[in-house]
Amino acid sequence: MKIVLRSNRKKELKEQIFLKAIELFKQKGYENVSVEEITSACGIAKGTFFNHFKKKEHILLQLGNSQLELLETTVHQHSQKKLKERLQLIFADLLSIYVEYSVLLKTAISETIRSAIVMKDESNNIVKLQSQIEKIIVEALEEKSFVSDRDPRVIASILVAIYFQSLVSWASTDMTVNDITRYFQEQFEVVWEGIENGEK
């Protein structure tokens, strides 16, 4: 019981550091915020910060890591749905993180795009997301609940690409939080028509 409580407190503290850091990045700009400022704003020691994040750049990776945690849950949650609906629901759930923390996370996305160091690590999260989507498509093909002559890897790659393109558009324009899901769904429908046209 104590281990579980300690784990929960550790997770809450990590999230608190993440959100406070993003708030500071928004106010002052990513480059102008030091680790010392983050720890001071959180009321923690510098060593506590480094227990959760190796360096400042890794705060931005928490965004992708949060999505991977949610991905595992949402993949199982929608497992009984038909492939198209299941994929739409999975991506909608992932987008919900951005909607929930819209102002803070818009800054995180912008800074992640600009940071080459983080993008190297972020690409691992993208690969994991794409692999999970590909696995879902392959399972649907094997169960014959979905038929297409398109390569599952290509389908997954395109769907993940439009997902991230939606996030980039949202982060770099005046698009509202309500617009992002609709924007993604419109692109999803166009792409899905091409996938369906490729069915045997």
Concise account of the structure shown:
The protein has 200 residues and is mainly alpha-helical. It has helices at 2-28, 35-42, 46-52, 57-77, 83-100, 102-114, 116-142, 152-172, 177-197.
Describe this structure in words.
With 200 residues, this protein is mostly helical. It folds into two domains: 1-53, Homeodomain-like (Arc Repressor Mutant, subunit A, Orthogonal Bundle), CATH 1.10.10; 56-197, Tetracycline Repressor, domain 2 (Orthogonal Bundle). Helix content is 82%, strand content 0%. The protein contains nine helices and no strands. It has helices at residues 2-28, 35-42, 46-52, 57-77, 83-100, 102-114, 116-142, 152-172, 177-197. Helix 1 (2-28) crosses helix 6 (102-114). It is elongated, with a radius of gyration of 19 Å. The chain starts with a helix and ends with a helix. GO terms for molecular function: DNA binding. This is TetR family transcriptional regulator. It comes from Aquibacillus halophilus. Keywords: DNA-binding, Repressor. Residues 11-71 form the HTH tetR-type domain.
Topology:
Layout: H1 2-28, H2 35-42, H3 46-52, H4 57-77, H5 83-100, H6 102-114, H7 116-142, H8 152-172, H9 177-197
Radius of gyration, taken over Cα atoms and rounded to an integer in Å: 19 Å
Total domains, how many? 2
Query: How many β-strand stretches?
Result: 0
Q: Could you state the order of secondary-structure elements as H and E?
A: HHHHHHHHH
Question: Helicity range of the residues?
Answer: over 70%
For the biggest sheet, the summary is:
none
Summarize model confidence as the mean pLDDT. 82
CATH first level of the largest domain: which class?
A: Mainly Alpha
Q: Give the second-level CATH assignment, the architecture of the largest domain.
A: Orthogonal Bundle
